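Re: folding output
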Amino acid sequence: MGARFISIWLLGLVLMLPLHAYASFMPSHLIDGFANVVSWVVLIVLPIAFIALFWFVHIWPDTIAKRRQHPQRDAIHALCVLSLFFGGLLWPFAYLWAYTRPTMYKLAYGTDRYSPVEEKTDDTKDGTKVGQ
């Protein structure tokens, strides 16, 4: 019983001895190169990716409004552009607006689909000026 206790105690002592400890998962000659790559990614690639993601998220409600032919998509587009300048505070409103339909829009305008605003010109259909 005593020999078994001593052998278990010695085995535990051997297992607790420190082995060679390394602070990195890479060999020491590759650490500087890896750190350089990580620093360039953090300084160059991530800011570009965050700006692109920020822009994409703020244009998304306009894309939804175009796909769904929202009758007020020009106003949703304006709100998306304003949201870019105000740091994203207006984006949730544009997102919700893109997924909702105006309640009385069809009654007032006769349709609930997008119709572009036509420019007013002085020409009539036959090519003569108005007032001639």
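--- second protein (sequence, then structure) ---
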Amino acid sequence: MRVLLVQPAPFEHGRMGLENALWLAEPVALTSIAAMVRARHEVRILDMRLEEDGVLPRVLAEFRPDVVGASSMTTDAWQAQAVCHCAKSILGEQVFTIVGGHHPTLAPEAHDIAAIDAVCVGEGEETFAQLCDHLAAGGSRHDLAAIDGLAWRQPSPQGARQVRNPNRSQARSLDTFPLPARDLIASYLGRYFFAAATPLASIQTSRGCAYDCNFCAIWEFYERKVRFLSAAAIVDRMEAVQEKFVFFLDDNFLSHRGRIEEFLAELERRRPAKFWMIQGRTDFIAQHPDLMRRMRDAGLCMVLSGYETNDEGTLAALKKDNLREHNLKAAALLRQLGIWTTGIFMTRPDFAAADFEAMWAAIREMKISIPLVVIHTPLPGTQGWRAERHTLLTEDARFFDLLHAVQRTRLPRDEFYRHYARWSQATMGSSRKSVALLFKRPRLTAALLKGVPAFVERLKSLRRVIEDPQSYLRDEVGTIPRDAGGPVLAEEVAAA
């Protein structure tokens, strides 16, 4: 059976977003799923973030897959649906279409449309493998009740309805999954990056998160469980990739000291000569300076952290379970060690002008190497979504990119975006102060030089968009009212 797996682009062709400017990671979810089925089925992977618009219809017509699957976060949910529409329009009803990933898992009902035959809920490897084997053996596409982890459309005289099967267990050891089928994305390797770090490989060494921040759904996707790849398996994968830079995709790499020490011992013994990057919490960094120094010595070159805010009250409201003091200490320690910091900060629709200025000042104070400023967005599947859904101005997933205010703003909308669009310029001083890090680690600097020109060009293109307040307002035309900002009426507050 022929299988086509598609990574949609979370942006219109030619439009800049944070993903195609700062960080483009390989589609590990798809290479992992492909590895589970390739022994029994012919599999191809398309990464539409790196393809021209007309490629998908051409590949569908030439390859004529029996199954088309698309992975989706919230921002590319619409594009994942478009992939399935395209498959049905070219191949007809005989092609089986399925979507999976975070957004379909947390909001399967949003994908209950005629163009999508099934939704993979939760981890996809075993569910997708069982589905493909079922179809290849002649099993009915209209009777999928035996496959855990599926939500599927069941025909009836009253019309098709979505049936939700029991969740699939997420207990399998990560070491027992086959290695991701990176050879199926060979034509794209060398084009993935983080800032100037390229070529970049991506490795997932754990799944899940032990924290329950109310703006994040990672912990809900993984049912409050955290599983780890063994230290030996991590280094095996590092040695298997040709790329000099490796990004560990774990939602929080810094979650278990003992596990990190085992990994470092293996890394120090085998010395794969890689520079590596992680995502991790600032409280762990602040509380483990010696361990962070050891990680630096073993190749750690960048940490991406959610600093979120400069305000203790907001950290508590977000259920971040962290302190501003930790943010300050972590930023200072990483700078001292010569580790680049990427910090995510969250503005809110209820910001006044002074709140924006206070955030810019906090970012400059911490001297974050790469500050990223987003807008608080109640994402589907989160506690925030359930609590604030009634306040949303739209549920169009394209606006849930953390760059648009999907709730009423305290300031008039054009004024809100005028302040928000300043973040790149207003925090420039923070980035410039990080230039000194280049002299602390000359080997790292030399490795980064190749990617600098392309990164600079991407930043120029990005800034033309994000620094233009009108670009946000133009996006919203026809969806979000221009007057959805300014003082909230007392009766609206009471109704909420």
